[in-house]
Amino acid sequence: MQDDVVLLAHGSGGTMSRDLIEKRLLPAIANPILSRLDDSAVIEASGRLAFTTDSYTVDPLFFPGGDIGRLAVCGTINDLAMVGATPLCLSLALIVEEGLPLSILDCVMRSVQDTCGQAHVDIVTGDTKVVPRGKADKLFINTSGIGVIAEGLDISGSRACPGDRILVSGAIAEHGVAIMSSREGLSFSSEILSDCAPLNGIVGALLEAAGESIHSLRDPTRGGLATTLNELASQSRTSFVIEEALIPLSDDVRAACEMLGLDPLYVANEGKLVAIVGPEGADAAVRALRSHPLGLHAAVIGEVVEGKPGRVMMRTRIGPTRLVGMLTGELLPRIC
Amino acid sequence: MQDDVVLLAHGSGGTMSRDLIEKRLLPAIANPILSRLDDSAVIEASGRLAFTTDSYTVDPLFFPGGDIGRLAVCGTINDLAMVGATPLCLSLALIVEEGLPLSILDCVMRSVQDTCGQAHVDIVTGDTKVVPRGKADKLFINTSGIGVIAEGLDISGSRACPGDRILVSGAIAEHGVAIMSSREGLSFSSEILSDCAPLNGIVGALLEAAGESIHSLRDPTRGGLATTLNELASQSRTSFVIEEALIPLSDDVRAACEMLGLDPLYVANEGKLVAIVGPEGADAAVRALRSHPLGLHAAVIGEVVEGKPGRVMMRTRIGPTRLVGMLTGELLPRIC
Known about the structure:
Two copies of one chain form a homodimer. By secondary structure, chain A is α+β, with helices and mostly antiparallel strands. Helices cover 30% and strands 26% of the residues of chain A.
């Protein structure tokens, strides 16, 4: 039944495009700004704005704990939150492979809307392209987003300075392990779910509690915690020292990583953040994170120190200290 | 030589991603905001903002008169201009197929930068994903953009009203014919070039000359002039009447359309606009368009009338009047 799949004509710009958009895509995510259907959305905003973009090519489209729609909404909201911005609105651009079942598109759109609802953000503008069979892999999504940064905040990877504490908001490596297990058809004693979640709420709580002592925020996605710490140390021209024993990691994820031959420090997260916090705000920051449902296992894992710019050292569980580099090569393609 | 093509590891988020971004992509399009490399760009803006997104999957990547990089920058600038906004900044998100020669990526990035320079707009945030061979077709680009709308302007497809004049800024169907000829390996007596161009300059001139009498603007891309007129008539619940003899169309493009079996009314444009203008401003609007290099052949092609909402009628060259519908089915996939 050709009615049940996406056809090239759905991307033509003509009547079938209009029907797909007006009858299937818009109803799922409707709001007054989007429904105007001009070439651009018109919004009101002022002051310092954050602007970010990300494409999502995750394989498989649906995985334990999430799907490409949830991932696309969370990922872009999180990039806004990581400069301290309150998300204002998102765009949603789909590249669909001809032949994708419309039922799959419906599921993804429902997930987009559920996640937007959870994060209190609307999709205000969109785009849909269809490419012939074999020219894409089912569905790719781009989300871009705009957020507003409150007065007085200046959060950047460049602001880490010696003495700052390094915090992580919870147990690491869950997203990557969930994707990998799902792809390999592995199952563990308990199912490991992706941590994919919108972080604007927990960042709001963190900023309220520790406002100006928050120097840097970053979500450790592709490349994992190790790569994010390297980026922050390099951007701020400082050294970082962390303690392996302090890094939150669940037993299930640790066991899965051992079985899969993965180092959890390099495995992607989609609902965790790293915060670099001045020492005066560190306790308040940890308390704020732990009092939010997404931060129950938040912990201080180390400290920013003087030293070779960009160097990250880790005191291991068994005692000695080792260098923690960036991810080299390719761990796991299409993780997000 | 594996050094010469994009590898999966370039999308890993690790050292090869960093090298690709910092050594190849950033230098091409560098500016102080982008180079900060936080998760979001931070910009200053206030008032009414326009926000838009578009993905580009054009095939081939390079075509007479343009390439996917130029198209991606122009398309999003034009969507901003079509609500009367002055473009402020763009995002650029690449989905690259493993194996794409880096030299091709370099060419596209140069074109992105050249077009940004021409339009006086910067790329301030970006993203790069790599998917395995066969999971995408060489390169897809998403650009999103933010623009600022001046006080007093209210431009929307819903604002066309009876008595308004319908203007087009120049000869139609050039982009689609250029792509189609290039794909089919056809050549005509003179090469037909895509009209792909940033329209923010000509829209600025138009708004200065006819400001508040500009009711609607739209660029007739996928689906061509006919589909755009149908959308505008439908959105404003009016009827449109146009005259075939008044529609600018070059002899070369007309001949190519006849040979290719295309109706130029349905063929995509990437550097033209339709303006719906109150009668008091129509003469000034035409003069303003014609005095800009991109609008030399601008013309009034018809009028908005009372009648069945969404109906577009055309008086043909040979006399009788016929209904002009939206594009149905699929004319030409991956035109943009």
